[in-house]
């Protein structure tokens, strides 16, 4: 667990500012992940102090991708130097948005791996994700992701 606290998620996701929608990995294993993201006023998905639905879906996708993405890295690679990945949402099966957070709030996203199919070239997976701010559920979704190592 101490390794998670020192993990810089930006070194493991292909996203960069201004498109990085995850600040911290709170916990992670082969089937679950929890992340946090503090909404800032300069975020590209903020309009009139509201973090919009598209931003929350992107946060969910980045959170989900870290479960499968972690399997491409060596356990002791805390700098993300061993592998470069690309990935994208291949399908959104369902999404429910209940509320949108505002600037200054920190959201916590939790994802569960439902299924995974690996080939030598790529991984396809189905995940469920929920996003909360304090005790309030903001979004729930199920999506498919495609993840590939860049050679």
Automatic annotation (TrEMBL):
Listed SUPFAM superfamilies: Thioesterase/thiol ester dehydrase-isomerase
InterPro entries: ApeP-like_dehydratase (IPR016776), HotDog_dom_sf (IPR029069)
Pfam (any one): ApeP-like
Name of protein: ABC transporter permease
Organism whose genome encodes this protein: Aquimarina atlantica
């Amino acid at each position: 667990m101490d390794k998670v606290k020192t993990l810089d998620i930006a070194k493991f996701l292909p996203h960069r500012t201004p498109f990085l929608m995850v600040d911290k990995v709170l916990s992670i294993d082969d089937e679950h992940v929890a992340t946090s993201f503090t909404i800032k006023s300069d975020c590209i998905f903020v309009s009139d102090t509201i973090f919009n639905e598209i931003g929350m879906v992107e946060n969910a996708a980045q959170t989900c991708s870290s479960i499968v993405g972690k399997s491409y890295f060596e356990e002791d690679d805390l700098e993300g130097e061993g592998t470069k990945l690309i990935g994208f949402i291949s399908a959104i099966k369902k999404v429910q948005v209940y509320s949108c957070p505002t600037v200054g709030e920190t959201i916590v996203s939790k994802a569960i791996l439902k299924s995974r199919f690996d080939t030598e070239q790529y991984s396809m997976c189905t995940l469920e994700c929920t996003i909360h701010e304090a005790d309030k559920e903001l979004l729930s979704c199920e999506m498919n992701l495609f993840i590939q190592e860049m050679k």
